[in-house]
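In the design runs reported in the main text, the only information available to the sequence generator was the tokenized backbone. The following block is the verbatim input for one such run; it is reproduced so that readers can re-run the procedure and compare outputs position by position.
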């Protein structure tokens, strides 16, 4: 018998309040920035100049003691809040048990449990299977591998403004050249970019936008060469573009009729972000395969490809896997995240956030004509900024607002093909008061433009 190690985690409490005590960046951040420039390549840039020391709930604390209201949550990863107690406890306990054995050599329960939870909570009540990976891009890559093996076809279709990652195949699938692709080619072949539905910019109904997409797939690609169509139910990096009603169901219908695997990349929109486990549920689609990553494990790297059992079983044994894939500590964290969403009713928290943030953003839109569009669902909302009186993208305004917000203790993220979107991805742990306080700062930033 060995003694059981009781994991102890020492941490100082972090008051859930905004507090700026130095100029931004403060002196310690500036010193770290100097060290960073010497050893980190220019390609790895950071949107903000301050270094983080600690975080809890909806607050991040920098090395100079400044506290920021975090409306980005590590790009929508910290959905249930930074250093959530249950996640910290579950991951700490697993750290002390075992941290790695490789599932493809010796299996363990945590991997199986995450697959069960994903089968239960992704849309559709047919038998499902899951392969776990380390990152979103790796999930996309594996979904394409599986769809190709299942269909015996090579073509991959994606939508304009899509973001699917930074590996070679996923660069080919991503829309925006700068900064993701420029100079990094040649890219993988057999990837086709179809027009999407972007109501603010194309004004098309779901039916008309779907007809345009389908015409492209039929005429330019040819359905019989197509293994899969990959869609984001709400486009992430592309600017939180919510397709017109009926658009995604029409695409799914076309995929079904043509033997094309319909894949929903829910890496950003999934895991309680929009008030449902997966945003597909809002759009009335039941994808053949659902991809999850960002929000599923409280910041630990793990990703899932979950799909119809007959599709997922297409690969021969040994065809799927990876050294770190489905890491036991990350799996323990993911199980805790699922548990917290359920036991604390966090889907309703996303709705609470929408009920405060959406009307507030629409109120700002009524007062500032630089805001062209406000859109999104749950705790995944955005405003698209334009040159007043036009629909011309206004990335300058986004840069000014995010810089002003950072100086005043609010951490914002941009998005969009033209960099003219501010996206809001707060953790579901954010209080009404913090949310309202952040909106006041954004209002001041808009007034200061
Ligand atoms: C972030 C993201 C990815 C890539 O995930 P990584 O973990 O960064 O590789 C793919 N698809 C969508 C929709 C994303 O938001």
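Verbatim output:
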């Amino acid at each position: 018998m060995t003694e059981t190690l009781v994991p102890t985690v020492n941490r100082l409490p972090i008051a859930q309040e905004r507090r700026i005590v130095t100029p931004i960046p403060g002196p310690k951040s500036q010193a770290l920035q100097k060290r960073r420039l010497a050893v980190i390549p220019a390609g790895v840039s950071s949107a903000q100049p301050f270094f983080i020391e600690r975080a809890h709930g909806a607050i991040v604390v920098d090395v100079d003691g400044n506290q920021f209201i975090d409306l980005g949550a590590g790009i929508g990863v910290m959905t249930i809040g930074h250093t959530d107690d249950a996640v910290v406890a579950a991951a700490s306990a697993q750290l002390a048990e075992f941290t790695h054995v490789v599932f493809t050599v010796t299996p363990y329960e945590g991997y199986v449990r995450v697959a069960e939870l994903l089968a239960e909570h992704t849309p559709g009540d047919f038998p499902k299977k899951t392969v776990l990976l380390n990152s979103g891009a790796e999930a996309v890559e594996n979904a394409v591998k599986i769809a190709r093996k299942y269909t015996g076809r090579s073509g991959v279709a994606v939508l304009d403004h899509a973001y699917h990652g930074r590996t070679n195949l996923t660069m080919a699938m991503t829309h925006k050249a700068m900064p993701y692709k420029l100079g990094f080619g040649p890219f993988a072949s057999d990837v086709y970019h179809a027009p999407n539905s972007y109501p603010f910019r194309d004004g098309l109904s779901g039916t008309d936008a779907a007809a345009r997409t389908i015409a492209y797939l039929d005429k330019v690609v040819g359905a019989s060469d197509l293994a899969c169509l990959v869609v984001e139910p709400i486009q992430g990096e592309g600017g939180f573009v919510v397709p017109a009603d009926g658009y995604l169901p029409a695409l799914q219908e076309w995929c079904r009729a043509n033997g094309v695997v319909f894949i929903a990349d829910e890496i950003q929109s999934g895991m309680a972000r929009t008030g449902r486990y997966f945003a597909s549920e809002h759009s009335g689609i039941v994808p053949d395969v659902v991809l999850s990553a960002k929000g599923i494990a409280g910041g630990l790297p793990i990703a899932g490809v979950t799909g119809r059992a007959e599709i997922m079983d297409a690969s021969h044994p040994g065809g799927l896997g990876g050294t770190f894939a489905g890491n036991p500590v990350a799996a323990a964290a993911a199980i805790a995240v699922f548990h917290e969403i359920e036991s604390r009713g966090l889907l309703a928290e996303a709705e609470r956030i929408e009920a405060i943030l959406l009307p507030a953003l629409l109120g700002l839109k009524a007062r500032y004509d630089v805001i062209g569009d406000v859109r999104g669902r749950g705790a995944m909302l955005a405003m698209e900024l334009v040159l007043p009186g036009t629909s011309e993208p206004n990335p300058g305004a986004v840069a000014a607002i995010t810089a002003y917000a950072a100086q005043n203790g609010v951490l914002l993220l941009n998005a969009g093909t033209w960099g003219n979107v501010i996206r809001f991805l707060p953790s579901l742990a954010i209080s009404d008061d913090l949310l309202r306080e952040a909106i006041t700062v954004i209002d001041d930033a808009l007034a200061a433009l």
